């Protein structure tokens, strides 16, 4: 039996399970040879069982992924059936029956009723169905967020115990990283965890310096989560990505699939952040930086281990696929010990990766926790997909603009661009639109774009100001992509949410 989790009330078929995955062929690498899985060499013909992988959580996450994605993936087949109904007498009724049965909602009546004039308006029905799937998904998983918050309290305790009073993670906006927190790193929603996504992991250094100031002020004023004299640190993490199967085509689009360039760019921003604080506040010792690389084909991470001065090297890292392979078959204690040893040993490497000794004890413990969490994810991909994701490239269902949906963090569900104004976020937006011109427009489907911001209900007037901001962003997007808009190939949806996690979604009409 699977664990009970969000989505269990709706019977949904499972993601491809290993019994079926046995029939899967190893994918071809870029040079045409069959790939060898970096963590489990016997894949795809044998199932991996790592002693530290959390099977119950993997089962629950598989159901979440399947039920969220299924809401979106049923849309096109249903629309094909609707289009085939043609001008039958009871078209509206039949179309709505199909929609209710397979999608769980009705189509907008006005759109169906117009069908007899110019035929079925597939782009409008498609977009409205995507936005309905999104709203239903948020509703379904807001319950889950409350559970995560409870779990997050133990994450907060772990972070403070490791000597961190805030962790701020920036990743690439690529949809394949959308499951970074719940899946790849297994980090629940938490008060001490901030997240953002930017094309190519080119995060906003100034914004993060402001966030650092807010975190330090809070410690000074409220003593939360640690007092200002306690010596805990603010940790800034950057996550870049590459593809082991096809490194020169399926890597980070923002860096032309050049993993070295992607790494260097992320490291450079981390160093600018740290240096910026040191220069302005002469207290650089209170910040730590960490660089993580992700293989989007297997979800295995590598963690670049800082030295005793907190400095990073592109050449000094622990590869978790290697660790999985090395510890497979060990008992839990041996496996844990091997992971801790790997982190210690990497600090002794010479040559280009040489650094000034080991990082502090809390950093080593945090890295070990992240690596152990990620072992479960490597096994998740092995168990549900035969080791490698079948959608090795882009397959996002919509573009998410603004603050993003905390509830919907699943691989390839959305291309996420975190932005406050279109002028500032235009590079990220353009990358997203380029991806969707290929994914949707070339197939005759429009681009669904969901603009979403959160507000603080404690601050008077904030909600009204956020609505105005959202409408301003929507108008700027329409102006920038007027060609798509006039061709009926761009649909926008606006929503806001109180920043308290698990709050209901409030739709904002876009004039
Ligand atoms: Zn990227």
From TrEMBL:
Keyword entries, A-Z: Bacterial microcompartment, Carbon dioxide fixation, Carboxysome, Lyase, Metal-binding, Zinc
EC class name: lyase
EC number(s) per entry: 4.2.1.1
Classification via InterPro entries: Carboxysome_shell_carb_anhy, CsoSCA_C, CsoSCA_C_sf, CsoSCA_cat, CsoSCA_N, CsoSCA_N_sf
Presence of the UniProt keyword Lyase in the record: yes
Main location as per UniProt: other
Protein name according to UniProt: Carboxysome shell carbonic anhydrase
Organism expressing this protein natively: Acidithiobacillus concretivorus
Upper taxonomic lineage: Bacteria, Pseudomonadati, Pseudomonadota, Acidithiobacillia, Acidithiobacillales
């Amino acid at each position: 039996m699977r664990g009970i989790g969000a989505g269990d009330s709706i019977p949904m078929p499972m993601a491809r399970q290993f019994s079926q995955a046995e029939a899967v062929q190893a994918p071809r690498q870029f040079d045409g040879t069959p790939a060898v899985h970096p963590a489990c060499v016997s894949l795809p013909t044998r199932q991996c069982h790592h002693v530290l992988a959390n099977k119950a959580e993997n089962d629950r996450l598989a159901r979440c992924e399947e039920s969220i994605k299924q809401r979106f993936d049923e849309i096109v087949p249903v629309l094909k059936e609707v289009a085939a109904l043609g001008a039958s007498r009871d078209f509206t009724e039949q179309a709505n029956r199909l929609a209710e049965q397979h999608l769980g909602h009705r189509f907008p009546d006005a759109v169906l009723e117009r069908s007899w004039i110019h035929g079925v308006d597939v782009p409008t029905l498609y977009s409205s169905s995507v936005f309905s799937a999104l709203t239903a998904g948020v509703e379904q998983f807001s319950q889950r967020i409350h559970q995560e918050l409870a779990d997050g309290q133990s994450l907060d305790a772990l972070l403070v115990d490791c000597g961190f009073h805030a962790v701020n993670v920036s990743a690439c906006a690529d949809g394949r990283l959308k499951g970074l927190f719940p899946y790849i790193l297994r980090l629940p929603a938490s008060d001490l965890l901030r997240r953002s996504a930017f094309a190519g992991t080119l995060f906003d250094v100034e914004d993060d310096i402001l966030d650092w100031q807010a975190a330090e002020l809070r410690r000074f004023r409220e003593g939360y989560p640690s007092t200002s004299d306690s010596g805990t640190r603010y940790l800034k993490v950057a996550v870049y990505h590459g593809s082991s199967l096809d490194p020169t085509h399926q890597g980070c689009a923002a860096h032309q699939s050049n993993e070295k360039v992607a790494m260097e760019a992320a490291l450079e921003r981390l160093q600018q952040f740290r240096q910026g604080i040191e220069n302005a506040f002469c207290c650089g010792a209170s910040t730590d930086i960490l660089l993580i690389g992700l293989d989007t084909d297997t979800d295995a991470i590598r963690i670049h281990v800082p030295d005793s001065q907190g400095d990073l090297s592109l050449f000094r890292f622990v590869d978790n696929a290697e660790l999985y392979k090395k510890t497979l078959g060990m008992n839990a204690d041996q496996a844990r010990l091997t992971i801790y040893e790997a982190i210690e040993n990497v600090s002794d490497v010479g040559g280009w990766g040489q650094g000034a000794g080991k990082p502090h004890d809390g950093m080593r413990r945090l890295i070990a926790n992240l690596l152990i969490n990620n072992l479960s994810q490597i096994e998740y991909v092995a168990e549900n997909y035969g080791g490698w994701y079948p959608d090795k490239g882009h397959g996002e269902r919509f573009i998410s603009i603004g603050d993003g949906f905390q509830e919907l963090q699943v691989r390839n569900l959305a291309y996420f661009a975190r932005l406050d104004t279109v002028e500032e976020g235009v590079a990220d937006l353009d990358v997203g639109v380029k991806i969707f011109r290929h994914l949707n427009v070339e197939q005759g489907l429009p681009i669904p774009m969901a603009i979403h911001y959160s507000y603080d209900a404690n601050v008077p007037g904030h909600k009204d100001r956020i609505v105005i901001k959202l409408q301003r962003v929507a108008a700027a997007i329409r102006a920038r992509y007027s060609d798509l808009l006039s061709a009926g190939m761009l649909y926008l949806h606006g929503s806001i949410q109180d920043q308290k996690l698990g709050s209901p979604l409030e739709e904002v009409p876009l004039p």
